[in-house]
Here is the input.
Amino acid sequence: MYQPLAYRLRPKTLEDIVGQEHLVGPGKIIRRMVEANLLSSMILYGPPGTGKTSIASAIAGSTSFAFRMLNAATDTKKDLQIVAEEAKMSGTVILLLDEVHRLDKTKQDFLLPHLENGRIILIGATTENPYISINPAIRSRTQIFEVHPLTPEAIEMALDRALTAKDGFKDEDVILEQSAKRELAFVTNGDLRSALNALELAVRSTPKNEDGTILITKEIIQECTQQKGFSHDKNGDAHYDVISAFQKSIRGSDADAALHYLARLIEAGDLISICRRLLVIGYEDIGLANPAAASRTLDAVLAAERLGLPEARIPLSVAVLDLCLSPKSNSAYQSLDRALQDVKNGKATTIPNHLKDSHYKGAAALGRGLTYQYPHEFSDGWVAQQYLPDPLAHTRYYEPKFTGRYEQALAKRYEELHQKKSSSTK
Here is the structure.
């Protein structure tokens, strides 16, 4: 039966793993577990092809435990029961459960007691962020480890191994040009499985030269990958990382970084996320420092939505640079958050009588609105009177920032009013 190169080269020990040194390197957590023979259930999460299955296979190969593989989405509760029965007979089974975020409640409830007593050591694999996608009951019984995309250097090392390994191309005279190796290492974006699959396709589809060698050039690799060096899953965890980096780059006034992440989101075709995020940024990060920028951003977003991609990139680029290079202030929403916290903490106490509704018969008898002073009747449109409930009478939620001229003017007015209010109560 045909087995893909990536499957044939799957690591048998921790020493065979390429990359993920932060987990399996000397003195690191998973290596310590294996060397101490104190394995515990874990969840490995990260992009495809980064070594989750390889780590599970290597852990099993470094121990005497049986190793079984199931898929949470496609395998049934009965399949789990078979593994549990085997664990009862043999003592312990390491179970690699792929797509562990797809584990439904029935399978989860069956699995939990076996994780508790240690008969099954679960190694869950997922591309989704487990803190978002995995049930807390499973999370609480596992350690969570993130695996990272492999560096180009690590992928090159794995490609060299593939050319010399017995289960690879040791018995075939394959020459992988350096430029081809570099292309393969970069274009697969840290996905070793994709790199090995592309190498195998290149070798199997390239005829031998007259001297019996198989020469793999950069052009052949480009044909066998058909990639532009960019991949993006709109529903994946990495997508939210790009959005996060996009907003933080604008907040940090790094125009070049913001344009880079905008380009990635545009290449992914995710106009909805871009527009929504820009509107949030306009009010969250720019705010009172430059309110006009938020209005211009709305205009750019409306234009982008009407134009659609690819032309939408034009108004979007204007908005990104405008927001990036604008002064920043989060004072408005931070002020509201402080007020919300007081409300949540039970400080939403009785409204002063003079502010209560007085537009009904009998309100006067209840003392509603009797002492209210109408600001428009005073020369500068202001009169000293208490608006906050008594326990909060002297609370200040708004803490101005002085990063833009508009908010500087607001801050000056805010302080003037507070001083007048303080003077009137002395």
